[in-house]
């Protein structure tokens, strides 16, 4: 129960951030991961794909964050597509 409430809080905060900063690959990635953890796989895929699309243009990311999203998002999408 506690974890679910925290995930909803994470989702709410990242949605607000993404609305204010629509080019944020990190916010989209974090939303995708949070939705994956709630079991909402369709929405998780939507945001993980969005993070990959935003990645090339998001200049706010460090190289580490860029590499992390670039390597982790496809793995998460594969996990969702192949349960």
Which features would summarize this protein structure in a list?
4 helices, mainly alpha, Serine Threonine Protein Phosphatase 5, Tetratricopeptide repeat, 83 residues
Explain this structure to me?
- This protein is an all-alpha fold.
- The protein has helices at 2-20, 25-38, 41-54, 63-81.
- α2 packs antiparallel against α3 (41-54) and α2 packs parallel to α4 (63-81).
- It starts with a helix and ends with a helix.
- The protein has one domain: Alpha Horseshoe (Serine Threonine Protein Phosphatase 5, Tetratricopeptide repeat), CATH 1.25.40.
- The protein contains 4 helices and no strands.
Number of strands: 0
User: What's the CATH class label?
Assistant: Mainly Alpha
Helix content: over 70%
What is the 3D shape? globular
What value does the average pLDDT take?
93
Radius of gyration: 12 Å
**Secondary-structure element pattern, one letter each:** HHHH
Quote the distance from N terminus to C terminus: 24 Å
Give the oligomer, counting copies of the same chain as homo and different chains as hetero: single chain
User: How is the biggest beta sheet arranged?
Assistant: none
CATH-assigned fold name: Serine Threonine Protein Phosphatase 5, Tetratricopeptide repeat
Indicate the topology.
Layout: H1 2-20, H2 25-38, H3 41-54, H4 63-81
Helix pairs in contact: 1-2, 2-3, 2-4, 3-4
Short overview:
This protein has 83 residues and is mostly helical.
């Amino acid at each position: 129960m506690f974890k679910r409430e925290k995930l909803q809080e994470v989702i709410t905060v990242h949605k607000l951030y993404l609305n204010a900063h629509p080019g944020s690959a990190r916010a989209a990635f974090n939303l995708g991961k949070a939705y994956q953890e709630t079991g909402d796989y369709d929405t998780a895929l939507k945001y993980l794909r969005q993070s990959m699309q935003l990645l090339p243009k998001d200049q706010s990311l460090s190289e580490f964050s860029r590499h992390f999203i670039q390597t982790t998002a496809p793995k998460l999408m594969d996990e969702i597509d192949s349960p």
